[in-house]
Amino acid sequence: MGCSSCSTGGNGLPGGCKNNGACGTYGCNKLDVFDWLAGMELPQGQKPFDMVEVRFKNSRKGFYRNSSNLELFAGDVIAVDVSPGFDVGVVSLTGELVRVQMKRKDIKDNYETKKILRKATEDDIKRWQDGRTLEQNTMMRARTIARELRLDMKLSDVEYQGDKSKATFFYTADDRVDFRELIKRYAEEFRVRIDMRQIGYRYEAGRLGGIGSCGRELCCSSWLTDFRAVSTSAARYQQLSLNPTKLAGQCGKLKCCLNFELDQYVEAMRDFPSVNTRLKLPKGTASHFKTDIFQRIMFFIYEGQPGEAPFPLSVDAVKEILEKNKKGILIEDIDEFIVEEVEEKGTDFAEVVGQDSLTRFDKSRNRSRGGRNRGNQRNDNRPSDNRGPRPNKPAEGGAPQSKTDQPQQRTKPNPSNQPREDRQQRGPRPPREQKAPNTGAQPQGGEQNKNPEGQRPQGDRNRGRGRRDNRPRPPREGDNGPQAPKPTE
Questions:
Q1: Ramachandran class of 16: left when φ > 0, alpha when ψ lies in -120 to 50, beta otherwise
Q2: In this model, does residue 2 exceed pLDDT 80?
Q3: What mean pLDDT is reported for the chain?
């Protein structure tokens, strides 16, 4: 669980973090505080403030009294009293700034404040690190047990106390959960005291962390410490689409950043007329459609005229029309007040990929072979030859037929790379000589294979390709006559 970039430190943090956890591995970016009063000396006679701010794991802080007057600095690992037992934490703030933090969080300095026991020893640190390594396996096993009991809850985190005598389980649930049986199972499984703590969905997202839709780390896990209520009115003021999937964060609630610029939008809208205003125009009554706060333009649309498009008016023009309507005066022409929309200029993008075409890989590198595999691409890695499409067989007494009605030559490869100028180019293939009809006895089904016109038999055409039916092969020259069918048993 330690930070790989700080594995050589020696201040007691898991992994030996020498940056006091400032790298953010344990959520320290959120819980870190810059002590701007550290370099200032106290007035004479004033004692230093005896309260210290201590950080635990990644999302919890506490204030403890330094009753033993230990010399503590930010980053020191200490053991504090939690009764029963003790916990181990890291000092995050000392001095007068702790008083300011306690006042801001409304924490009173009274006798109930817990005390700092000592600086953590090697045994305390070792036990603390062992508890951190058990948290992940404990959480996975705890989720399995909760699923077996069919409880409608989600375990999000587990935190062991510094002395490994207590484990706190953080969970989220929509309704109340009866976990009496669950605590018994946990106590038998983990052999520690069990503390079940229900947290909200925003607090869970802050503990787990993540990346938001803006591409940056979640505000609740980096710097946001308090969660204010966010309502849909914040989105309406900012003219945002009320789309729950876009307005919700990883916690499932409305994004906290909707409140960041809300005050500026509310202040800018004070100078705008109310959205409930209606303008009395020559064509009829127009109501508010939408508002462009940045350009100070309001869009209106005629009521009862769905075919009319919204027309833009400046804020000053709307105020002027309202003043005239109050006096009972109608404007003569609305075109005088309509704002001309400025078209945004397109951006000319430069070609930064050189002269290469972006579609150079779209064309198929494998060409189809002509003839029998026409239309099918080569799927193997064999090099393609330079043969053209195979010419069609000549008809009886005619020239070879092809798509272009021109004979195409087939060239054979010349392995010796010798010039072939002395060889005579071959012309079109002469027609095949007619064979005498076979006078032998025809086998069964031979009547179908007779070719009275003397053309090539069907059996010769299918030679080497496999027969497509179960008809017997016709006799050929050199055969000893028809073969008698084999007797069937």
A1: left
A2: no
A3: 75
The answer to whether 55 and 92 have CB atoms below 8 angstroms apart is yes
Q: Using one digit for the tens of pLDDT, what is the confidence trace for 430-488?
A: 666 665 555 554 444 444 444 545 455 554 554 555 555 556 666 665 555 555 555 55
Q: Bridge-partner residues for 170, per DSSP?
A: 157, 197
476 falls within a domain: no
Are 39 and 110 found together in one domain?
A: yes
Q: What is the CATH number of the domain that holds 157?
A: 3.30.300
* Contacts of 58 by beta carbon, 8 Å cutoff, 6+ apart: 26, 27, 28, 30, 31, 207
Q: Domain range holding 177?
A: 128-206
Which amino acid would we find at residue 465?
A: R
The closest of 346, 331, 341 to 292, measured between CA atoms, is: 341
